[in-house]
Amino acid sequence: MTPALELIGISKSFDGFMALSAVDFAVGYGEVHALLGENGAGKSTLMNVAAGLYAPDAGQIRINGAPVAIRGPLDAKAASVGMVHQHFKLVRPFTALENILLSDRRGSYSRGLKEIAAEVRRHCEALGFEVDLDKPVGMLSIAEQQRIEILKVLVGGARILILDEPTAVLSDQESDRLLRTVRSIAARGTAVVLVTHKLGEVIAHADRVTVMRGGRTIATADPRTVSIPELTQMIVGSAVTEVPAPSQNIGGPLLTVAELRGARSDGHVALSGASFTVRSGEIYGIAGVGGNGQTELAEILMGVRRPLSGRIDLAGADEVTADGPQQRRARGLAFIPADRHTWGLAGGLSVAENFAVAGVLAGKYGSPIRVDTGAIRAATRDAVEAFDVQGVRGPGQKAALLSGGNAQKLVIAREFSGSPRVVLAHSPSRGLDVRASAAVHDRLRTARDAGAGVLLISEDLDEILLLADRVGVMNRGKISAEFAAPCDRHAIGRALVHHG
Ligand code: ADP
Ligand code: MG
Question: What is the per-residue pLDDT across 335-354, written as a single tens digit (0 to 9) for each?
Fold first, then answer.
């Protein structure tokens, strides 16, 4: 196999922190090479070096066997390296074609648009892509935006395509579709680097896999001959297995949801009379196929969306239906939202600011106009330590620099710092690797064992079965069936797809 891209002995540090230590990596034309590792392993940093976003401190980059100097994204492009980042870099009011034109300046606007349109359509046809090229990209789904990013790179002439955690933002079905497309891109002779932390994807879709841990390459292997336990061992350094640990002590109701109805922003009634109760000392899991009202339920419970009718009571006595998020927090509700970046953290603010915001509003650090910043920094350091948030060099570091798992740990550290009575966790381990998921699950069990009621909304049936003491199946906007642990996976599976 011709080596398309080779990274040899690449090192990179940030403020004295070694993110990459003498890393080697190579990908060949026609190959899908998976780059696997936990959050914070250094995968994105390594690929950002190849894409010209970071200058390495040491090491060499070779394209087609010859050393090249990649000093910026334009050099990378000239070397036919294209990368699709975890956070898309699209201009939302512009159409897909305009976005692609923007990254590929040629001639006048109208001539460029015409030329590009023809080229884009050719790629779409070859890859079976369905994209609305003339709508503002801000109005398109995440999966469509991702296809536009891929088109942008391919139209730009990339023969080495790097996809950074492309499936982290997609549903299972969309992921499947994307990964099949990735195969056909490789089949046309492109070298593909698939960055992921999902073992299943590697086994099913990659020709080779390189595992990174702690800024080093651990091994490169053939996914057809290496076993899942072996790979897991390489990723985490030791085996992680989770086992169910049912509640020992279930008490009275803490959260009662009655006949809740709610609509999406487009008016569609997504919640059609959901009723359930979460008790002290239990994890109540809501299982369901995505799009059955889970998102609307979570938003209404957080207080960021108003219900059409129904009521929400906390601890049997207080009705909170009309309260905003802040009042709900004050009454003991904590939220671990599915979309960390929209509702969970403010990336531009520091780790300390993100950690302390709820406490400041609750008056925990003195009056809001004279907050005790020393106390905030100390509390942040303690929480970072207690919740094992990795990659924090100090309380002043920007939250946006945290990897997915560590961002989630920071949200959890903040939400659990007030000893909540009820915890709403929506897809809390989505996008996290095995060890970070296990840590998040552990925290939910600890809260439950301390007497909190935990509401777990998840499309991942394995996660529900692992954690829930009771399960409600959400189907077309209501709870259509309930089960108590130990649950029968097949019975739940049938309830998930039953349309009666
Ligand atoms: P991965 O993609 O494998 O999850 P990253 O490459 O994003 O990991 O991060 C590796 C380490 O480098 C992490 O500890 C992360 O916090 C750190 N890091 C990444 N980018 C920066 C940056 N621009 N400044 C400081 N630290 C960074
Ligand atoms: Mg990354």
Answer: 998 877 666 788 888 999 98
E strand or H helix at 117: helix 109-127
Q: Which two tokens stand for residue 61?
A: 């980059």
Check pLDDT > 70 for residue 56.
yes
Residues 171 and 262 in one domain: no
- Same domain for 100 and 28, yes or no, is yes
Last residue of a domain, one of 236, 267, 295: 236
- pLDDT computed for residue 500 by the predictor: 52
Full domain range(s) for residue 103: 5-236
- Residues within a 6 A CB radius of ligand 1: 14, 19, 37, 39-45, 391, 401, 403
Task: Report how many domains make up the chain.
Answer: 2
**Tokens linked to 39:** 């959050």
Q: Are residues 380 and 465 in the same domain?
A: yes
Mutate to test the pocket of ligand 1, among 10, 14, 197, 384 (most ligand atoms within 8 A of CB): 14
Write out the two tokens for 327: 């009042």
When pLDDT is cut at 50, 70 and 90, the band that residue 280 belongs to is very high
Ligand 1, closest atom to CA 402?
A: 16
DSSP 3-state percent helix, strand, coil across the chain (nearest 5)? 35, 25, 35
pLDDT (average), residues 122-128: 90
Query: What does the pLDDT average to over 47-63?
Result: 97
Task: Check pLDDT > 90 for residue 15.
Answer: no
Proximal ligand: closest to the CA of 212: 1
Output 434 or 485, whichever has higher pLDDT.
485
Q: Above pLDDT 90, what percent of the chain? A: 52
CATH number, domain with residue 307:
3.40.50.300
Which of 45, 213, 345 should be mutated for ligand 1, with most atoms under 8 A from CB? 45
DSSP for 355-387 reads: HHHHHHHTTTTS-TTS--HHHHHHHHHHHHHHT
Ligand 1 centroid–CA 290 distance in Å is 31
Is 248 part of a structural domain of the chain? no
**SS3 at position 469:** coil
pLDDT beyond 90 at 40: no
Query: Left, alpha or beta for 237 (phi > 0: left; psi -120 to 50: alpha)?
Result: left
The bridge status of strand 269-279 relative to strand 283-287 is: unpaired
Measured from the alpha carbon of residue 39, the closest ligand is 1
pLDDT of residue 207: 96
Which ligand has an atom closest to residue 19 CA?
Answer: 1
Q: Examine residue 245 and state whether it is found in any structural domain, yes or no.
A: no
Q: How far does residue 19's CA lie from ligand 1's centre (Å)?
A: 6
The pLDDT tens digits for 217-250 are 999 999 999 988 888 888 877 656 677 888 888 9
